[in-house]
Amino acid sequence: MSKSITQDMAYRQSLMKYAEKYGVSRASRKYNKSRSYIYFWKARWNGSIESLACQSRRPHRHPNQHTEAELKLIQNMRRRNPSLGMVELWHKLRQRGYTRRPESLFRVMRKLGLFPPAKKKNTYKPKPYEQMTYPGQRVQVDVKVVPRRCITDPELRLFQYTAIDEFTRLRFLGAYTEQSTYSSADFLKKLFKWYARRGIRVECVQTDNGFEFTNRFSNSKKGLPTLFEATAVSLGIQHKLIRPYTPRHNGKVERSHREDRNTFTPATAFTH
């Protein structure tokens, strides 16, 4: 594929044609260019405009570049020790007279392609969102800390529990002074009754993996049900945990908390 034609290339081609027709001296006066400049490009010009492009000024070799003997030593050593680490390989090369620094060895090995190809990671493909088909099929539950600037009592801490039915988007809130499995269990009982008064039977609650909901990642209590989980079983509610470190799976309640923070929290003061 030919290089793109620049204005300089077109200018030089016009200069070359003029010099070819009327001579170098006349072209030098007309184009206000030195005779040496015209002879330089005339020596390169083969009749095509591509020959008048500026060539790279990068040197073909460096005075301190690796010698052929050094490159052969590196390749042979790498072939005999394919799984050897970078520092260990450099140390073995030093024992055989190699005097370069590890940084130089790394650059030349990368240039020669002596590093094993990186393993291709499997692309994560999220599952398509499961649309709910009736009220109460799944309720998202989460908790957030109420900022201290919104509480009149400086010694009081409040935690906002939020539940959102995925089908109807009906939202139920609760405030507690502690973030624990006891508060979570109490909130679960209240949300169950609140939705029931509106004709909605809660079948499933979805939460993150916090200790206020589950002992899934607890070192000492892993496998033991929390009070929240026991309460869900007693109410006939399925408890579903989202994938760790993916709060977007609880996106509706997360967005609800964000909207509360942007709309109400900066201008609202809560009292106990």
From TrEMBL:
<dbReference type="InterPro" id="IPR001584">
    <property type="entry name" value="Integrase_cat-core"/>
</dbReference>
<dbReference type="InterPro" id="IPR036397">
    <property type="entry name" value="RNaseH_sf"/>
</dbReference>
<dbReference type="GO" id="GO:0003676">
    <property type="term" value="F:nucleic acid binding"/>
</dbReference>
<feature type="compositionally biased region" description="Polar residues">
    <location>
        <begin position="263"/>
        <end position="272"/>
    </location>
</feature>
<dbReference type="InterPro" id="IPR009057">
    <property type="entry name" value="Homeodomain-like_sf"/>
</dbReference>
<protein>
    <submittedName>
        <fullName>Putative transposase</fullName>
    </submittedName>
</protein>
<feature type="domain" description="Integrase catalytic">
    <location>
        <begin position="131"/>
        <end position="272"/>
    </location>
</feature>
<feature type="compositionally biased region" description="Basic and acidic residues">
    <location>
        <begin position="251"/>
        <end position="262"/>
    </location>
</feature>
<dbReference type="Pfam" id="PF00665">
    <property type="entry name" value="rve"/>
</dbReference>
<dbReference type="InterPro" id="IPR012337">
    <property type="entry name" value="RNaseH-like_sf"/>
</dbReference>
<dbReference type="GO" id="GO:0015074">
    <property type="term" value="P:DNA integration"/>
</dbReference>
<feature type="region of interest" description="Disordered">
    <location>
        <begin position="248"/>
        <end position="272"/>
    </location>
</feature>
